[in-house]
Amino acid sequence: MYKKILMAADGSDNSLRAAKEAVKLASLSKGSEVTIVYVIDHNEAQSEEIHRGTSMEVEIARQKKIEPIIDMFESEEIFYKKEMIYGIPSHVISEYANDRNFDILIMGKRGLNPMQEMVLGSVSRSVLNKVDIPVLIVK
Q: How many CA atoms lie within 13 A of 129 on its CB side?
C-alpha cells in the first residue's frame, strides 16, 4: 500500500479535503508517513510582508493556514512531517515528488475561473504532467 505519502497543502478548502483523503490512505497502512509540503510563492511572500508587517507575523499567518491540516493528522495519530519551501508551487511540488521515493502525491484542485486557468494555468494540472508517481487530485 502507500507507505510514503506526499501531501501538497495551501490552506484552501480543496487542500483540507485532500488532507482528509491523505489521512484515510495513511490509516490503511501501519507505519505510513505523510510529508506535508507548503510552498511559499516568491511573489506572494513579498506581497505578504509588505501588507502584513514583520516576517514573524507572516510566518505565524502561514502556520495558521495549515493548522487545520496538522490537527487532522495529529488527531488520527498519523506520523507526519511538515516542509515549508520557497519557490514556484508547481515546480517545487513536482521536483520534491520526483526527487524522493514517495508512493503517491495527494493535492487539492484549485478552483480557478476559466480565464485565470487559461492565462496562469493550474498548479494541479502542471504537477500532474510533471511527476512520475501516482497523483490523487481532490475536488
A: 7
